[in-house]
Amino acid sequence: MDHGLTEGPIKGIDRNLGDIVNKVALGGANAVLGHVGIPLYAHRGYGPDIGLILHLSGSTSLSPDANYKVLVNDVLEAVKLGADGVSLHINIGTKTDPEMLEILGKVSRECREFGMPLLAMMYPRGENVENEHDAQVVKIAARVAAELGADIVKTNWTGDPDSFKEVVDGCMAPVIIAGGVKAGISDLLEITKQSIDVGGAGVAYGRNVFQAENPRKVVKALYLIVHENYDVNEAIKELRL
C-alpha cells in the first residue's frame, strides 16, 4: 500500500486506510507494506495484528524521473516505529540505477546492523529494458538484491512457471512476485499457484487486493495457496462463502 506516495489517493486507499489494513489482516496477510503514513494513521488501529514493513524509498508520478526512487526514510525510524521489516524499490536498467544501487547497499548494511529484515522490490525497468517481464532481465534484477544482502526479493512474474523457476533458482534469497496491473481473480490465483509450485516464497499484491470487491476474501484465497498449498479451484471457493 505504498501507492499513495506515487499516485495519490487512488481507489481502494482513497479514504479510511485503516479499514483496508484491517480487512487484509482478517484475510490472513502476513504483513502490510507502506510508507510512514500507515503506522501513523492506519496501522494496528483495530482488529487482528498484522506485520508492518516500512517502505523507505519513493517517487511521485509527477516527477520528471519517476523511475528514480530516492530515500524518504531510514532503518532507525523503522526501529523506533516497531516495524517488522523495511523495503526499498530499485529499478534496474534505468539511467539512475547506480544511485539506487548505492541506496540498496547502504540500507542493507544498516539492516544488518539493526537486525532488521530487508525486502527489496527489484524491477528491470528503464532505458535499457525492452520487456520488464523477460526472464533474462528479471533474473539479473533479482540476483542483484541477493548479492547486496536483501532477505526477500520482490520482482515481476515472468509469464510462465519454467522461466520463473530460473529466477528463483538464480537468486539465493526467497523470491516473491508483484501483482502489477489489476487482473482477474482466477488469473491472479493461477499465477500465485504456479509461482509457489516452482519455488516462489509468496506474493506482494497491491491493487489486486485493495481494489478488490472483497479484499478479505481475496487475501484468504491467496493465504490458502501460499501457506496451505491449496489448488486454485479449492482456494477460489473462499470467494463464494
In short:
The chain has 11 helices and 9 strands. It has about 240 residues and is of the alpha/beta class. It has one domain (about 5-240): Aldolase class I (TIM Barrel), CATH 3.20.20.70.
Please provide a written account of the structure.
Helices cover 43% and strands 16% of the residues. It has eleven helices and nine strands. The radius of gyration is 17 Å and the shape is globular. Helix 2 packs parallel to helix 10 and helix 6 packs parallel to helix 7. The strands form two sheets. A seven-stranded parallel beta sheet has the order 1-2-5-6-7-8-9. The protein has a two-stranded antiparallel sheet with strand order 3-4. It has one domain: TIM Barrel, CATH 3.20.20.70. The chain is of the alpha/beta class and 241 residues long. The model has no long low-confidence stretch (mean pLDDT 95).
Q: Whole-number radius of gyration?
A: 17 Å
Number of helices: 11
- What is the end-to-end distance? 26 Å
What string gives the helices and strands in order? HHEHEEEHEHEHEHEHEHHH
The percent of residues in helical segments reads 40-55%
Fold-level CATH name? TIM Barrel
Parts with pLDDT < 50 across at least 5 consecutive residues: none
Q: Which geometry do the CA atoms define?
A: globular
The CATH C-level name is Alpha Beta
Number of domains: 1
What is the CATH architecture term? Alpha-Beta Barrel
- Percent of residues in β-strands: 15-25%
Largest sheet: 7 strands, parallel
Q: What is the count of β-strands?
A: 9
Strand order of the largest sheet: 1-2-5-6-7-8-9
CATH superfamily: Aldolase class I
Whole-number mean pLDDT: 95
The secondary-structure class comes to alpha/beta
